[in-house]
Amino acid sequence: MNKQTKNFHQAKWDEPVIFELSNKGERGILFSEIEQEIEELIGDGFSKLPKNMIRQKPPNLPELSQMRVLKHYLRLSQQTLGADFNVDIGQGTCTMKYSPKINEKLASSLKLTALHPAQDEITVQGILEIIYKLDLFLREISGLDKFTFQPGGGSQAILGMASVIQAYHDSKGESEQRDEIITTMFSHPSDAAAPNVKGYKVINIYPNEDGLPDVEALEKAVSNRTAGLLITNPEDTGIFNPKIKEFTRIVHEAGGVCGYDQANANGILGITRAKDADFDLCFFNLHKTFSSPHGCGGPATGAFGVTDKFIKYLPVPLVEFDKDKYYFNYNVSNSIGKVRSFYGVVPAILKAYSWIMSLGNEGLKEVSQIAVLNNNYLLKKVLEIRGASAPYAKGRHRIEQVRYSWENLYNETGVTTEDITCRMADFGFHMWSSHHPFIVPQPFTLEPTESYSKAEIDEYIAGLKRVVEEAYENPELVKSAPHRSVIHKINTEALDDPAKWAITWRAYLKKKQK
Amino acid sequence: MKKIGLIINPIAGMGGKVGLKGTDGATILSQAKKLGAEQISPERTIGALKRLVFLKDEIELITYPGEMGGDVSKQCGFNPRVIGTITEDNTTADDTKQAAKELCNLQIDLLLFSGGDGTARDICEVIGDKIVVLGIPTGVKMHSAVYAHNPIRAGDLAVLYLQGKVKALKEAEVMDIDEEAFRSGYISAKLYGYLTIPFEERHTQGLKTGSPPTESYSQEAIAQEIVDSMDDDHLYIIGPGTTTKSVMEKLNLRYSLLGVDVIYRKKLIEVDLNEKKLLEQIKEKKAKIIITPIGGQGFLFGRGNQQLSPKVIRRVGKDNIIVIATKHKINSLNGRPFLIDTGDNQLDLLLQGYTAVITGYHERVMYKIDL
User: Of B152, B334, B364, which has the smallest distance from its Cβ to A203's Cβ?
Assistant: First the structure.
């Protein structure tokens, strides 16, 4: 039963934008008139407000009844293909694992939601303990010495790493000379983009024929201008890099700092550690490896850790424990300041803490073992599909994900990765391509994590097989997909034209008038 | 109604299977025929036309008679407008040029042509960058970057372009090697110019995930990086190509697209210098060479820029060679290294290995050079 593709059809409500549903005067809640007694005490409630705080015009918000609002958002939710609906293994690199619902309950408890970030620390000891203990867990997992949860996502954590690298060289009077950051093509693009934002020149290392960054290339890239290395490991190809320690040695010898992008550490928990590969800095995405939902399910967290030597550069405040109470430590001598307001996305921290507590030491290692096993089963099955290939490291096992290619299929049928993605949507599946640029031609990246059963992985494979059969028998059917989805083909022309794109209703109205 | 032109070089590719490394010129053609060579170009063109035929009521196909396009167009179900005259079984490069000229005058939207490097040269000579073209690969030598991966891809890309789904254009290299020299075992390639082709972004993400930088944007970013880092002590020798051209454009300087130019302190010293003149220029001054690999094949030295001879390169020094290329160009090599063939094996060995390539503003990649 599971091996068959489903007779799926996406809901299509043809729902307008909420602003278009607005009816003047329509209300969700009708407030009662002010009681006379109250009016006598405080007046009408407005006249006492300072004049400069009162809006001249009411905000242009849609005016709708409660029930219509509810319908609107429920309909939209039915038009998405959320992580809890589909076999979400097609979004490789993102570690789309199951986010246990018990953790959502904890995070939505009044005990957390009623807290205010400006409360005195003595009144929030419980959540500070959780933040501090999650720091201890991640120290154990990475081997590093201190974590901050301030960055609201992976890219912000990378920006944090670049800032710490800059502050470190600044303290040695070398930051002007050391203006280059080295990264690799199969690292996350933010490992290049974030240091660029800090003003760094970025040197990117192409993969060699084995799909790994070449040590010889790194040796050529380092110099007395090297500020540091920011590398994702394992890279997007999921190939184990046996020479990673040589990388850190070469960069250290050149005077650089080594930052480890472990946004996705799902294949290495309890197996390898940043410290053992001699990294100075690292970060984990709590919303990937540690099961807090991704951005669309609630803001994310890039948990950013450093070795002792770099603690003095971390953003403030750090959460510490003096054997009596937990407290905010603002006394960080060379702090880079803040990368985000307050202390980080506390619900994400709580969910990750709860997830780790539910698994324990051995459970975490088992997570990685199952994720790797699932991935290698999937790899074997995908390679049996006509037209699919997995460039590099032929015959070798991969870690937690694989970057595959439809190049053969494309050359034989003209069907592209994008076409297959669209057709997979007809069966309720999602299939992503790759980070930019496409080094692997017609790429797709799958990562089954530990969450999915063999039956579900087989279901996804059956979907891929069916679409590939169609591509060989009737390529037009695939090229014109999706046929059973909310939107058929998106006209992407406007995205190239600043005069046409609009990301707010107000911008839309303005541009429409023109 | 969109107008699409078609020119088939019917003899293209005939020399290939019989081992003649090309089919340029009447003598070689008759030799190929004696060796039993058969026409392959029309058959391969059908592969492309079949992908287009569903548009036959929405486009006007204009072509030359018989084996130069008329026959296969009809065979594929088109009702082509046939112009010009030919002598069947005896067409030459002049027919290709004549057809290109007439089709160009008819203001067609896209010219599809089937052939190899020789055909691309003929087309380039007549129409330059006046209209958008696309090559259906049917020749023996195909060093030019104007050809689609195979006839089917040519057809698909033509459809995307005609439907307005691919709008970006690219100036692609027209290269050819000297067949005579090639037959004697020497490769001597020359860059003959550029043709404008639709730019299929095979190596960039779809627009749905955000707009990737276009080729011209990337070239401009590279040019800015180069201009910002230029010093007053060095002469700058600018090699051929559209990527290097962007540096000259950024500086508002005159340039030779196919030649080697020299600038000093951001002022033009001379355009289109040969080896001798280059050596004179750098006799007393330190110099840097700015070069870009040839799209699709990756040659840095020895193809299309032989003015940058071993003597010039040695005089400038390995550390003063600045390589620039857009990431798209690098990715189009599909992982193959850059190539060098300066004619001086010792020098080639010295230049091989990893080099830093400027790919954007404050952006470089490490990429391998091989022999």
Answer: B364
